Amino acid sequence: MKRIMTGLFALLLCAALYSGCGAQAQPASSVAPETTAAQTTAPPAETTEAAEDEVADSYKVLVTDEAGKPVSGVSVQFCSDTECKMGITDEDGITAFNDPEGKYTVHILKAPDGFAADSTEYEVPEKYGTLTIVLVSAQSASDQ
Known about the structure:
- There is one protein chain.
- By secondary structure, the chain is of the alpha+beta class.
- The chain has a domain of about 80 residues: Sandwich (Immunoglobulin-like), CATH 2.60.40.
- Helix content is about 35%, strand content about 25%.
- The strands form two sheets. It has a four-stranded antiparallel sheet, with no helix packed on it. The chain has a three-stranded mixed sheet with strand order 4-1-7, with no helix packed on it.
């Protein structure tokens, strides 16, 4: 009985030493750093400020209906003299273009069902800001 107890003790001791030594033997690069809830849920202040600056330094196109309600899903083309980009309005009726200040034009490429096609070329102010485009309903366009 004494031998069995000594053997079990030795086995447990070896197992404890082995698992402790195994963790120490690993290279530092393979050990994952601990993360806290604060690290995973809150971005650093610089990231938040940079995102706000990025939004502030852009041209925004707001598309509304005749009643002033935002229209989502509108394909908008934003063009300089050399390049055109496309954006689609979100649920707030806005699409943004992060380009340097300058001369640009905006075109509605595709309006959602229920709205008349709009082939107007809109000039964007040279300073960052928001251009509002009002889409006319297909019914109102046919009445004219």
